[in-house]
From TrEMBL:
Keywords recorded for this protein, A-Z: Coiled coil
Record flagged with keyword Coiled coil: yes
Native source organism of the sequence: Phytophthora fragariae
Ranges in a coiled coil: 89-116
Superkingdom to which the source organism belongs: Eukaryota
UniProt protein name: BZIP domain-containing protein
Length: 305
């Protein structure tokens, strides 16, 4: 029998007291604790001053009690950790389920959004137009077909848009807005009908000047006058406007046909000049920006110069 067992006949009892773990685990811990007791006894025997058997028993017993208490704390902590892990896993699963439900709900709303209501008024179409435009600007790729369907549904095939005609003109304008600017969002502060077939909506359009804005709208701000494709350098003005948020006030006019319940005339007006002037602070720089720009001060896109 080992020295620990001889010196401490109660060690196994001390070790296994209140231990409800499986037999195999108890056996492993008993072996470990006996090794601990033997090490302590060996250390005591190597001491310069002799220590009595009773004190040896007390020292070993206290060391084992500390070890057992530490083991119990670890067991409790592990149990708490496992409980937290199980709760976290359950929360993740519940979160996934909620997200799936939200995705299904949003997909349903998207499907509804692409549809054209059977009963339309000029007021309703105006609100739908702004809502569709905002959604398209945020997701131009996947929403292109839905936006085209919506515009064809509310506009006459020969709708007049300024100097252009046809509903394809509108989707091209939307596409360019989403391409040229970042974070495009339009608000509709007010609407009025000066006549029974004309509705005018006030608009506030917020856009961010991005690298695409410089490339497509203001390519001449690069020294090669071709958006840097020839290796030129961007002017200081380009650096000043890059990343800036512009607030553009304007209006949209809808000419309404009560027979077909469709838009037959459409005209937009936006004041891009004022926010640029507020940003740059002088007319000289503003004049230079729009001198060869592919967008006009009233926010019309130019195909070529």
């Amino acid at each position: 029998m080992s020295a620990a067992a001889t010196a401490l006949p109660s060690v196994p009892v001390q070790i296994t007291r209140n231990d409800l773990s499986p037999p195999r685990s108890r056996s492993v811990r008993l072996t470990s604790d006996l090794k601990t007791a033997n090490k302590i006894i060996a250390s005591i025997k190597a001491a310069n001053h002799p220590i009595g058997l009773e004190l040896q028993n007390a020292i070993v017993a206290e060391a084992l009690r500390k070890k057992i208490r530490h083991r119990e704390r670890c067991r409790v902590n592990q149990a708490r950790y496992r409980k937290r892990q199980l709760k976290a896993e359950a929360d993740v699963q519940n979160g996934i389920a909620r997200l799936r439900n939200e995705i299904e709900h949003l997909q349903s709303r998207c499907n509804d959004l692409s549809g054209v209501p059977t009963s339309r008024t000029a007021w309703g179409v105006t609100g739908d137009y702004i809502r569709h435009f905002n959604y398209f600007s945020a997701h131009p790729g996947p929403r292109y077909d839905g936006a085209s369907k919506f515009l064809r549904g509310i506009m006459a095939p020969d709708v007049v848009d300024g100097s252009s005609s046809g509903d394809d003109t509108q989707i091209e304008t939307w596409r360019r807005f989403a391409l040229y600017f970042g974070d495009v969002h339009v608000e509709l502060p007010g609407m009025k009908m000066p006549s029974e077939d004309t509705l005018v909506a006030s608009t506030i359009t917020m856009v961010t000047v991005t690298r695409n804005t410089l490339r497509y709208a203001f390519p001449h701000l690069n020294s090669d006058e071709d958006a840097g494709t020839q290796g030129g350098d961007w002017s200081p003005i380009a650096s000043r406007i890059l990343g800036q948020r512009l607030v553009v006030h304007g209006s949209v006019l809808f000419g309404w046909d009560n027979t077909s319940n469709k838009v037959v005339r459409f005209q937009t007006q936006s004041n891009l000049l004022t926010p640029m002037l507020n940003l740059l602070g002088n007319l000289e720089d503003v004049s230079f920006i729009f001198s060869k720009a592919l967008i006009t001060p009233d926010c019309k896109f130019i195909t070529s110069k």
